[in-house]
């Protein structure tokens, strides 16, 4: 059971998503335009987003995922499902309630509920 202390200071979303191209406005850009972007102040400024393109190394995605899930100011981590597939072992083994990790579709990669780690956990709970 979670207490209020577990979530009361979690005021930000984090997003790991695909890049914007000249013809599309993809996940991260759209969310940043909606106002979710935040960069902490200080010597070690931290962003709450990672833009992933074809050149982004898997280690960088894993590092961002680990960083976002360890932060106490983030309540939800949104990650494009096709990017989550690149670090599936990390996403599937993440079990904490906060921040919540949600897999989302992108324009070029439709959502597949069979891959979603949260839905798979729910199905196991209900014996499906």
Automatic annotation (TrEMBL):
<dbReference type="InterPro" id="IPR008218">
    <property type="entry name" value="ATPase_V1-cplx_f_g_su"/>
</dbReference>
<keyword id="KW-0472">Membrane</keyword>
<dbReference type="InterPro" id="IPR036906">
    <property type="entry name" value="ATPase_V1_fsu_sf"/>
</dbReference>
<dbReference type="InterPro" id="IPR005772">
    <property type="entry name" value="ATPase_V1-cplx_fsu_euk"/>
</dbReference>
<comment type="function">
    <text>Subunit of the V1 complex of vacuolar(H+)-ATPase (V-ATPase), a multisubunit enzyme composed of a peripheral complex (V1) that hydrolyzes ATP and a membrane integral complex (V0) that translocates protons. V-ATPase is responsible for acidifying and maintaining the pH of intracellular compartments.</text>
</comment>
<keyword id="KW-0926">Vacuole</keyword>
<comment type="subunit">
    <text>V-ATPase is a heteromultimeric enzyme made up of two complexes: the ATP-hydrolytic V1 complex and the proton translocation V0 complex.</text>
</comment>
<dbReference type="GO" id="GO:0000329">
    <property type="term" value="C:fungal-type vacuole membrane"/>
</dbReference>
<protein>
    <recommendedName>
        <fullName>V-type proton ATPase subunit F</fullName>
    </recommendedName>
</protein>
<dbReference type="GO" id="GO:0033180">
    <property type="term" value="C:proton-transporting V-type ATPase, V1 domain"/>
</dbReference>
<keyword id="KW-0813">Transport</keyword>
<keyword id="KW-0375">Hydrogen ion transport</keyword>
<keyword id="KW-0406">Ion transport</keyword>
<comment type="similarity">
    <text>Belongs to the V-ATPase F subunit family.</text>
</comment>
<dbReference type="Pfam" id="PF01990">
    <property type="entry name" value="ATP-synt_F"/>
</dbReference>
<dbReference type="GO" id="GO:0046961">
    <property type="term" value="F:proton-transporting ATPase activity, rotational mechanism"/>
</dbReference>
<comment type="subunit">
    <text>V-ATPase is a heteromultimeric enzyme composed of a peripheral catalytic V1 complex (components A to H) attached to an integral membrane V0 proton pore complex (components: a, c, c', c'', d, e, f and VOA1).</text>
</comment>
């Amino acid at each position: 059971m979670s207490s209020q202390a577990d979530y009361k200071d979690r005021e930000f979303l984090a997003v790991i998503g695909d890049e914007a191209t000249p013809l599309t406005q993809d996940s991260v850009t759209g969310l940043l335009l909606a106002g979710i972007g935040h960069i902490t102040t200080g010597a070690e400024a931290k962003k709450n987003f990672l833009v992933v393109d074809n050149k982004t190394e898997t280690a960088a995605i894993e590092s961002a995922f680990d960083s976002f899930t360890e932060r106490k100011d983030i309540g939800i981590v949104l990650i494009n499902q096709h990017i989550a597939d690149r670090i599936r072992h990390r996403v599937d083994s993440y079990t904490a309630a906060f921040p919540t990790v949600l897999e989302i579709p992108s324009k070029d990669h439709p959502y597949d509920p069979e891959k979603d780690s949260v839905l798979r956990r729910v199905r196991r709970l209900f014996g499906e």
